[in-house]
Amino acid sequence: MAKYPVVVYGASGYTGMLIMDWLIDQQIPFTAVARNAKRVQEMMAERVVRLESATYEIIEAEHNVAALTQAFKGARVVCNTVGPFVNFGLTTVEAALEAGCHHIDTTGEQGYIRSVRDRFGDLYAQAGLLVAPSTAYMYTFAEIAAELALETRGIDALETATLCRGQRGGASGVTVGSTASIFELYRQEACYLWEKQLVPYPAGTTANVIDPGFVQPVFSLPWGGTSLPVFFQRDARVRSCSSYVGFYDNNVMQLVHGLGQKWEAEYKNLPRDHQDAVIKQIVDSTTPSMPPRERTTTMRTVDFAIGRGQLAAVRATVHGITAYISTGALQTAAVIKLLDGETSKVGFASACKAFGHRYLLGFLEQRGLARATVTQL
How far is 65 from 72, CA to CA, in rounded Å? Predict the structure, then answer.
């Protein structure tokens, strides 16, 4: 049973420790939950900033509904970082509900997010609780841009892009968990929103995204569809929404695209256990260890939304740094509101809709993590 109001589940992972950094910064006590308490303690001592001033405990729990429910009871908010979420996430969502906790997580995996909405949205609403997936750099920054675009009257169609540069260029600096989630997307249907319906992208879809901040187009992919088409599907303002993701290093993105084509040609129809082995081999070969903490001088992000209507057109851009550190900040911004009882939504909702995109943008801006611009077209 949790002693403190916030649970960080997946506490020995890279993102979990960054969330703890921010909770400590805001003087919020927390319960760290993971399968191996000794590893959590070792990793926290090595990685978590200001640990000596933290108020926390560590609880060991197996990944099943009963064990996690018992670990979460007594808390008010669960911050979940355990992925790939399409494989592990729903167990945690169910446990948080059983324990009477709000649930926020860090993934944009579209198949998982659709399942959370369809299976748990009403149940969380009936309990007066919020379940808010994708409260993270991906794709809250892009959603903030989309919401800024929607402030222009008449906008009903959105195209968004998420463009990142890692520690040493390209996608390097991506965590082991994120890499596993990326390649797990090969098994999932990726959809965009068209006329209020989720429509699958054709296999092999790509885009050369043009941004005025770059000399060359950025080779980009639908990246599993992202969370945004799901978040906007039931938004009366929006008729269509498509999203793309690209790393500055086009060679890296073309490699990911090539692996996707190879999956379609060779692995798509294999038994699941064979597919599991293929994904594990890819993850082990591309991301063998936890990356170092992000550097503000090298980790840069650009997220933008182009909004269109019958006559209106607008472009909103959010420039940022340190995607994983920003994820910890966004999780903590959400925790602050939930502990204060300040959410405009219960049930299934994005962080932008639950707490307001202007609040989240302000939280990031005040800490030097993002800035936004809006241009009428």
Answer: 10
Strand (E) or helix (H) holding 246? strand 240-247
Q: How confident is the model at residue 289 (pLDDT cuts 50, 70, 90)?
A: low
For β-strands 197-200 and 300-308, DSSP reports them as: unpaired
How high is the pLDDT of residue 170?
Answer: 41
Q: Which of 80-89, 126-135, 273-282, 299-308 has the lowest mean pLDDT?
A: 273-282
Indicate if 277 and 228 belong to the same structural domain: yes
| Residue 274 per-residue DSSP state | H
Q: Show the 3-state SS of 22-70.
A: HHHHCCCCEEEEECCHHHHHHHHHHHCCCHHHCCEEEEECCCCHHHHHH
**Residue 188 near residue 109 (C-beta atoms within 8 A):** yes
Q: Is residue 238 located within the same domain as residue 262?
A: yes
Count the neighbouring beta carbons within 10 Å of the beta carbon of residue 36. 13
**Tokens at residue 340, please?**
């204060």
- Domain of residue 56 covers 6-136+324-355
SS3 292: coil
In-domain check, residue 29: yes
Q: Output the pTM of the full model.
A: 0.93
How would residue 171 be classed by pLDDT, with cut points 50, 70 and 90? very low
- Strand duo 30-34 + 6-9: pairing: parallel
d(CA 292, CA 138): 19
Tokens 């054709």 appear where? 202
pLDDT tens-digit readout, 150-164: 999 999 999 999 999
3-state secondary structure of 344: coil
